[in-house]
Amino acid sequence: MTLQARPLRLSTQSADFEARFRQRLHWSADTNAEIEQRVADILHAVQQEGDAAVLRFTERFDGLQAQSLQALELTQDELKAAFEGLPEAQRHALEFAAARIRSYHEAQKKAAGESWSYRDEDGTLLGQKVTPLDRVGIYVPGGKAAYPSSVLMNALPAHVAGVGEIIMVVPTPRGEKNPLVLAAAHVAGVSRAFTIGGAQAVAALAYGTESIPRVDKITGPGNAYVASAKKRVFGQVGIDMIAGPSEILVLADGSTPADWVAMDLFSQAEHDELAQSILLCPDAAYIEAVQEAIDRLLPSLPRAEIIAKSLNGRGALIHTCDMEEACAIANRIAPEHLEVSSREPHRWEPLLRHAGAIFLGAYTSESLGDYCAGPNHVLPTSGTARFSSPLGVLDFQKRSSIIEVSEAGAQKLGAIAHVLAEGEGLQAHGQAALLRLRKA
Amino acid sequence: MTLQARPLRLSTQSADFEARFRQRLHWSADTNAEIEQRVADILHAVQQEGDAAVLRFTERFDGLQAQSLQALELTQDELKAAFEGLPEAQRHALEFAAARIRSYHEAQKKAAGESWSYRDEDGTLLGQKVTPLDRVGIYVPGGKAAYPSSVLMNALPAHVAGVGEIIMVVPTPRGEKNPLVLAAAHVAGVSRAFTIGGAQAVAALAYGTESIPRVDKITGPGNAYVASAKKRVFGQVGIDMIAGPSEILVLADGSTPADWVAMDLFSQAEHDELAQSILLCPDAAYIEAVQEAIDRLLPSLPRAEIIAKSLNGRGALIHTCDMEEACAIANRIAPEHLEVSSREPHRWEPLLRHAGAIFLGAYTSESLGDYCAGPNHVLPTSGTARFSSPLGVLDFQKRSSIIEVSEAGAQKLGAIAHVLAEGEGLQAHGQAALLRLRKA
After folding, report:
1. Which residues on B lie below 8 Å from A345 (Cβ)?
2. Residues A155 and A251 in one domain
3. Structural domain count of chain B
4. Each residue of B193-250: pLDDT tens digit?
5. Under which pathway is this protein filed (chains A, B) (predicted)?
6. Strands B125-132 and B116-119
7. Are B322 and B351 in contact (CB under 8 A)?
8. If we measure between CA atoms, which residue out of B201, B227, B223, B231 comes closest to residue B214?
9. How far apart are CA B112 and CA B104, in angstroms?
10. A interface mutation test: which of B424, B434, B437, B439 has the most A CBs within 10 A?
11. Per-residue pLDDT tens over the stretch B303-334
12. Domain range for residue A167?
């Protein structure tokens, strides 16, 4: 039987478009009560017993035995050796990518991550002080989805933000280490690394143990156990978003080679059977050409089976009236990755309000952004780009308001604050303002 | 029986300091399984039944009957009339405060909330596009803790960010409306307002109903039901922080009148019996003077009973070796409000890393910041200032990465991306990059 990938064909002109479109987009994070309970138990055990519990769970879940947590720490020498053991092309690629990512995030810090202040006409100082987090934890998945690029994308913004200490955790089932992940940790300047994973690693970072220091924030992707653990420790520490399956939306005017677009659709689909690849295009003949390219290119790919399942189950090729309508639909989807594969990308870009990352023009394949263009590849999924943003320097800083009221300012502000405080029935607030008034 | 407020006296020199200090700081958000379940049921009902469920719960919990949700919408005319019905002093105070808050948040937007981009040497464009959220919901508590200042502090940053529509919900138990809250909504330019509250209001904003539009983010404080509902809808919509009890930490060198500091400690304590007020000071005689001021000033305050319970149960006056040690302890606490009541506030400010807002100098009472200095009064509590920030313009915007790779850029980046993608076993990613290479 030949493998076939046939994304759902839709036209915005069909009477049933709205219903079928909604159905295809539908995705909801299953919360599994059993997982929730197991995770709660693991967190509790680590909080109570520290290292001992982490060692026990690591043996149970990762098949990895150790006498102490020290034995599970990767030394800087090991990380460096992993880097030096790589082929030259991989060493160069990691360093090149790291340099691009670092320089983009430095621009980001300069644009939006610096302290500022001003004085008003009374000499009152108002501002915002930006400081890095003291210590962060980065979760890196082990096993088949072990992505060295994620190490760079999580650790480098933290570094650029000025975070003092970056603790990486990465499970190594049965002791199997991924040299590219270790090398990426070396390149990204991870401070300490432990070969632990799962909910027990999240708990260790959130609460601290005898050997693992408590962090202020935990970022990085993981399986259902890791996601559930991150949600539970949120508040105790900061967390990044809980990611859903990856998505790409391609807006095409028909000017890009169909093979390129087909391959871009594949490159999300190959992540995961639940990943979603959608094409929006006003040109029916081009949609045919993309389907033809899909048929022709699919067999050449090692992950063809995953790609086919993803495209058949969640993919769509949507015929729109025009590019304007395509932009409006893109805003409804608020996709993680949005390619504007058009001769006039800057014509459409201003119409696009919600997306994690916007890739403009035929040359900007999403895969370049995944690895080395510079911007972060950790992006909001499942429509959360309506209200959230790519991971970046801002996520590894926090801001404190700065207020220094002058004596003159205290007179004006105090009178106002007194009125409002009395209106709210908070008399001590009012009195605190009044005490600073000059006696008439 | 005379009311007495005796905050715990501690000295960093005592052998038991560490244990007693930790114990006093301890606070944990109780999760109440019964509340959790009731909230889950309410959310489910609103998601399924829409308006009908919201009306039913509003009748049950707020004792407020209505035929339709339209009857629970406050018109712009009603908001305006509430404003015009206020005494002149209150109208002026609201407008003055709004102008200060607006102008601070405009400075914030200019400093950190604008789009930016640059081109690299290959002509590749990299940047970040900043866009406002389309629609946000603001929760305003009703009843005794109905604070008009919170309306300003939540709605104005959303406005400055450029949010298209701001939907306010405020419960009005038995139909009792707070004219100051309605007036603040008028001054802050709220788009629509509904007299609903509790978990049912959060659900209506998160899912949308026939009459209440779905929002992208919900901010604002509320009781345990509201907090639990916000946590549950997080992911579906954005939320701000879940706030714990309010806190103030005063770092004093002994140069500020003791009455002023005593009143500042009161002004957090009066919020809530669980609020926390702490003084850190290297001058033992000054600590005595503050206790004496507490004794003297307490009886004059209408909320003396709450203040006494808060100070006795959670307050502390801590004698430190010097100001440097006081700063180090402040960083451990990471307080919501941090007053540096010193003759040399700028000497100590650089040592302070973690705080929601920092108030410099004797004239800067925390109450001025609460109402009208300009910065936001929605601040991270319970030590979360280690990793989070005051509410602000950034919370009502989101960022999208912008990438436009030039043909020349695609050659360099493509070669690198191909190596890394192959290393991760993602061949379609690699092929998408290779397809853009010029044939040699």
Report:
1. 404
2. no
3. 3
4. 999 999 999 999 999 999 999 999 999 998 889 999 998 998 899 999 888 899 999 9
5. Amino-acid biosynthesis; L-histidine biosynthesis; L-histidine from 5-phospho-alpha-D-ribose 1-diphosphate: step 9/9
6. antiparallel
7. no
8. B201
9. 12
10. B424
11. 999 999 999 999 999 999 999 999 999 999 99
12. 33-239
Q: How many Å lie between the alpha carbon of A130 and the closest alpha carbon of chain B?
A: 9
Nearest to B371 among A297, A353, A417 (CB): A417
Query: Can you give the pTM of this predicted structure?
Result: 0.95
Judging by DSSP bridges, how do beta strands A397-404 and A125-132 pair with one another? Answer: antiparallel
Same domain (yes/no): A208, A248 = no
- Indicate whether A326 and A192 sit together in one domain: no
Would you call B299 exposed, middle or buried from its count of C-beta atoms within 10 A (0-12, 13-18, 19+)? exposed
Same domain, B116 and B259: no
User: Looking at the domain assignment, is residue A394 inside a domain?
Assistant: no
Whether residue B427 and residue A270 make contact (CB cut-off 8 A), yes or no, is: yes
Q: Which two tokens stand for residue A50?
A: 């520290």
Summarize pLDDT for B28-50 with one digit per residue, the tens.
766 788 998 999 999 999 999 99
Of A90, A126, A267, the CB nearest to B428: A267
pLDDT at A144: 63
Whole-Å CA distances, A131 to B37, B245, B271: 39, 24, 29
Closest Cα of chain B to A172: distance in Å?
16
- The CA distance from B261 to B257, in Å, is 7
Q: What is the CATH number of the domain that holds B73?
A: 3.40.50.1980
In a domain, B3, yes or no: no
Can you give A288-339 as a three-state secondary structure string?
Answer: HHHHHHHHHHHHHCCCHHHHHHHHHHHCEEEECCCHHHHHHHHHHHCCCEEE
Whether residue B126 and residue A107 make contact (CB cut-off 8 A), yes or no, is: yes
**Residue B114 shares a structural domain with residue B142:** yes
- Say whether both A344 and A429 belong to one domain: no
All residues of chain B having their beta carbon less than 8 Å from the beta carbon of residue A146 are 424
Tell me if B252 sits within 8 A of B344, measured CB to CB.
no
Domain-embedded: residue B380: no
Looking up tokens 């924030």 gives A217
| Cα separation, A249 vs B327, whole angstroms | 50
Burial of residue B393, with CB atoms counted within 10 A of its CB: 0-12 exposed, 13-18 middle, 19 or more buried = buried
Which tokens is A142 given? 């082990």
Interhelix angle B224-233/B198-207, rounded to 10 degrees, is 20
In a domain, A131, yes or no: yes
- Provide the mean pLDDT of chain B: 95
Task: With beta carbons less than 8 A apart as the criterion, state whether B252 and B330 touch.
Answer: no
From B326, B356, B373, the end of a domain falls on: B373
Last residue of a domain, one of A239, A272, A307: A239
Q: Looking at residue B144, what is its pLDDT?
A: 63
Q: Which tokens belong to B108?
A: 């914030």
Residue A197 has pLDDT above 60, yes or no: yes
Query: Cβ(A7)–Cβ(A298) under 8 Å?
Result: no
Residues A345 and A256 in one domain: yes
Task: Return the ∠ at Cα A337 (arms to A333 and A340), rounded to 5°.
Answer: 90
The conformation of residue A384, written as its DSSP 8-state character, comes to: G
Which residues are CB-neighbours of A336 under 8 A, at least 6 positions away?
Answer: A246, A247, A248, A355, A356, A357, A379, A380, A381, A385
Note the residue count of chain A.
440
Contact check, Cβ <8 Å, A424/B149: yes
Instruction: Provide, as residue numbers in chain B, all residues whose Cβ is less than 8 Å from the Cβ of A90.
Output: 419-420, 423
Flag if A345 and B114 touch (Cβ within 8 Å).
no
Measure the CA–CA gap between A356 and A379, rounded to whole angstroms: 5
Name B337's bridge partners: B248, B357
C-alpha count within 13 angstroms, C-beta hemisphere, residue B403:
34
A139 among the known binding-site residues?
Answer: yes
A223 marked among binding-site residues: yes
Q: Do residues B18 and B157 share a domain?
A: no
